[in-house]
User: What shape does this take?
Amino acid sequence: MAVRKGHTHDRRILVLHGPNLNLLGEREPEIYGRVTLHQIDAELRRLGEELGAAVDTFQSNSEGALVDRIQAARGQYQALVINPAAYTHTSVAIRDAIQMLGIPVVEVHLSNVYRREPFRHHSTIADVVDGRIMGFGPNSYYLALRAAAALAGARGEEQ
Ligand code: DQA
Assistant: This one.
């Protein structure tokens, strides 16, 4: 039997990670650091508890799987945090799915994409999200979750 903490969450927040982020920790650590995705997800769930939000996380290397998750989030979550990774720069499908979603969305990147190659400077979703946080490594995700919780009106995070 699972031990329940005895409190309910006001809000549900979905965190989506795009391609290659499953290899965080091993992948170009000079850019992305040594923290693994597993560790980031665990901290997101813990921080969610603190903020009164139940956090679900999902990673996929496939664009369609991410679109499916965004579509399925409708009516189920009060905010979305998304790092589309390389699809940030290419995906009209993810942009269209976000545009239909109708809940607050925060775009997140570990690295400051503007300090990197020019092809990373364009985001297909930048103008359809509520805000963007980048450049702080794993802290980008934690700041994004705080912003998403505030937008979702989670306990203690009202704006
Ligand atoms: C990234 C930046 C993207 O340009 C890159 O393709 C990624 C990760 C980031 O979190 O810094 O895979 O989204």
Remarks:
- The chain has one domain: 11-154.
- The longest helix spans residues 37-51.
